[in-house]
Design brief:
Blueprint (H helix, E strand, L loop, with lengths): L2 H22 L8 H22 L2 E10 L1 E8 L2 H5 L3 H12 L2 H6 E8 L3 E2 L14 H10 L5 E7 L17 E7 L8 E9 L2 E3 L3 E11 L4 E9 L2 E10 L5 E9 L4 E10 L11 E9 L3 E7 L4 H10 L5 E6 L12 E5 L6 H10 L2 E6 L5 H7 L3 E16 L19 E10 L3 E9 L2 E13 L2 E7 L4 H11 L3 H15 L7 E4 L3 E3 L4 E7 L12 E7 L4 E6 L1 E2 L4 E5 L5 E9 L4 E10 L12 H10 L10 H10 L6 E10 L4 H20 L4
Parallel strand pairs: 2-3, 2-5, 5-6, 8-14, 15-16, 15-17, 17-18, 18-23, 25-32
Antiparallel strand pairs: 1-33, 3-4, 7-9, 9-12, 10-11, 10-13, 13-14, 19-20, 19-21, 21-22, 22-23, 24-26, 26-30, 27-28, 27-31, 29-30, 31-32
């Protein structure tokens, strides 16, 4: 308290005493016990009121002892069972968690971990992933001590996350307790398989297999890739102490549509402790992107053969040459190429429009331009009877798709009718026209988009000469064929926008986090912030289903599907307000990554201990670990002096005292007839 407060308190005592004396003892001849008692009660009342008015601050000092934190993390993943270390971990858990000396010195807390960290969970060794670096992230947030030890009881085999060796903060001294067999044994392992998740029908797709060998002698091993018991690839590799890693590359055929599940196996004459890691699975979804194209012409022309060969250079395209009168059904085709339309084309063009097929119109000397004007609205033709040769002029501003100038300006001229060709505003021109090096307004190659409908127009015949000229310059047809493929790609792509877009993989490995994302757009194709999305997931193997709600993220909705068993699943995503639906499927492959290890990762755990000024131990010398921690002077308890200040007006008992004093005085005076 300050000097002023002390002075006021002394003054309060004097004033309270004087007032009480004046009221009960001043000029009183017979000072009875009753007067003295009433004087005391009045003094208490006055002094209590003065105390409340002055309201001094009362300070109280207490000492608080903070022990150094000691978090202990126990590995609860499947690999502990696979390495036969579950019993050791259980013994270490009991030895450390029940050690009274550690509890006296440290604030001891025990945790279990696999891909997450748990505080109130029993050891069961069923975790399907190990994420040791998550421990480093969590203790950084939980513990702020200047320096503290961390005990990590694990085999050191991590399946997820970043490198834990460099993840721990500088004030955390990590003491790994290494469980599991550390003896190096001979072992063959498929370390990794690299493959694209998608392949196109009738194409070949590459598979890259990384093989690893632990051992000292030279061996040979067979690497094979099979599907449903049929072997599609086999290769023998040689491994030794100096050549412990080999990469095997295979090209497999995509012969049928759908998700194809393959098995990669490595075998040898070795007697291995763990053969689980000799097999690995992968899956590839084979997509059918073949496009059927009808090339319709009433004339024979070298262009037809050149167009067919050029388009079919992409194995996903098939061109069928038809005469207009031979066309009965266009439903199996994706695009129609109308080569030099005449009056015979009216019916087939009308049929293509009804089916919503995109069209590629090619004109020339035999074209009936009245039919062209009647068949489309993108270009207006006013043509004379004479013919003209047109040279191409490349338009650098074209942006419907990426197309380089492959020398269009130097290609031979194309022959077409002479006249005026006017393009509407929705037409994009890739190639303009020149006559005798003079630019004219007529387009030569242009494209249009009308909603979901797309058309292309090549105004001139003899494009076969372009293909030959491209080959003369580059010694191959690739440049020209790619150019034609981009035209077909433009015409076969559906530009219609979808209101519900769902993103998912075709397959997942068992134990992997499964996340499906979705976007829902309103009628203006703007992201709808208020959509209500749900997914109904069906396990086709067990014939069970479950529904989950999506959670809104940043411009997308997400749902996480955890702890799903291996098998085939189908699902339907529904937007509840509009009842818009999307259906899909995926497969979960039976691959348990925690069963791939044959040894504890002793080297990495020792490196972690060295980097964090800790020390590695084994289950057999836990007592040495305890002694080390107890003897370390860096881990001292911290005693803090805590000063608590409270104003006197907060003391309720003062008010109670005042009330008692006043009430007692009143009753005494009343009883003795002094009122």
């Amino acid at each position: 308290m300050t000097k002023i407060t002390i002075f006021l308190l002394i003054l309060s005592v004097v004033i309270a005493g004087l007032l009480s004396f004046y009221q009960y003892l001043y000029k009183v001849k017979n000072k009875s016990t009753l007067n003295l008692f009433l004087t005391f009660l009045r003094f208490v009342s006055y002094f209590t009121v003065f105390l409340l008015l002055i309201n001094p601050i009362i300070s109280r000092k207490t000492l608080e002892t903070s022990k150094t934190p000691l978090p202990i993390f126990f590995d609860n993943s499947q690999s502990i069972n696979e390495l036969g270390a579950s019993e050791n971990i259980s013994k270490v858990f009991k030895a450390l968690s029940e050690n009274s000396k550690l509890k006296d010195k440290f604030e001891l807390q025990t945790y279990l971990f696999d891909d997450e960290i748990y505080q109130d969970k029993a050891l069961d060794f069923k975790g399907k992933q190990s994420k040791i670096d998550q421990i480093a992230k969590d203790i950084k947030q939980l513990y702020k001590a200047p320096i503290f030890p961390v005990i990590l009881v694990t085999d050191g085999n991590q399946t997820q996350g970043s490198d834990y060796i460099y993840s721990f903060q500088s004030n955390a001294n990590v003491f790994p307790v290494i469980v599991g067999d550390t003896t190096e044994v001979e072992d063959l392992k498929i370390n990794q398989v690299n493959v694209n998740k998608y392949a196109f029908l009738k194409n070949k797709f590459p598979v890259e297999v990384f093989v690893q060998y632990n051992g000292q002698k030279s061996i040979s091993a067979n690497v094979s890739i099979s599907e449903n018991g049929s072997v599609f690839f086999k290769e023998t590799v040689s491994l030794s102490a100096s050549q412990k890693v080999k990469t095997v590359t295979a090209l497999l055929n995509a012969n049928s549509i759908g998700t194809k599940k393959y098995t990669v196996t490595i075998s040898s004459s070795l007697t291995e402790k763990n053969k689980t890691n000799n097999t690995k699975y992968f899956a590839v979804e084979v997509l059918d992107q073949r496009k059927e194209i009808a090339l319709i012409s009433s004339v024979n022309h070298p262009d037809l053969g050149a167009i067919k060969r050029s388009i079919e250079a992409n194995q996903q395209r098939k061109v069928t040459i038809l005469k207009p009168k031979e066309v009965n059904d266009l439903t199996k085709f994706n695009v129609c190429i109308f080569y030099q339309p005449t009056s015979e084309f009216s019916t087939v063009i009308s049929q293509a429009k009804k089916l919503g097929l995109n069209a590629f119109f090619i004109t020339g000397k035999s074209t009936d331009f009245n039919v062209m004007n009647q068949s489309q609205t993108d270009l207006t033709f006013k043509m004379a009877n004479q013919k003209e040769n047109y040279v191409a002029s490349y338009n650098e501003q074209f942006n419907l798709f990426a197309q380089d100038n492959i020398g269009f300006d130097y290609f031979p001229p194309l022959e077409n009718g002479f006249g005026s060709i006017k393009a509407n505003s929705n037409v994009s021109v890739l190639l303009g026209s020149k006559i005798n090096r003079i630019e004219v307004e007529n387009p030569m190659l242009c494209f249009s988009e009308n909603g979901a409908n797309r058309n292309a127009y090549l105004l001139g015949e003899n494009i076969w000469k372009w293909r030959i000229e491209s080959h003369v310059k580059t010694k191959e047809f690739t440049q020209f064929d790619t150019f034609m493929d981009k035209i077909v790609q433009f015409l076969t792509t559906n530009s219609a926008k979808k209101s519900l877009v769902v993103n998912h993989e075709s397959f997942y490995n068992s134990g992997e986090p499964i996340e499906i994302t979705a976007q829902f757009f309103n009628k203006n194709y703007e992201f709808d912030e208020n959509a209500k999305l749900a997914i109904n997931l069906q396990n086709k193997t067990k014939n069970t289903s479950k529904t989950y709600d999506f959670l809104k993220g940043n411009n997308e909705y997400k749902v996480s599907l955890d702890n799903l068993e291996a098998g085939n699943y189908s699902f339907t995503v529904t937007e509840k307000n509009s009842n818009t639906k999307y259906s899909g499927s995926f497969e979960i492959l039976d691959f348990e990554i925690e069963k791939q290890f044959v040894n504890a990762d002793k080297n990495r755990l020792e490196q972690l201990a060295q980097n964090t000024n800790g020390k590695a131990f084994y289950p057999t010398n836990i007592d040495a670990l305890v002694d080390n921690l107890l003897a370390n002077d860096n881990y001292k308890s911290i005693q803090k002096e805590i000063v608590k200040k409270s104003p006197l007006i907060d003391w309720v008992w003062l008010l109670i005292l005042l009330a008692i004093a006043l009430a007692t005085e009143w009753f005494v005076r009343k009883y003795n007839g002094l009122l």
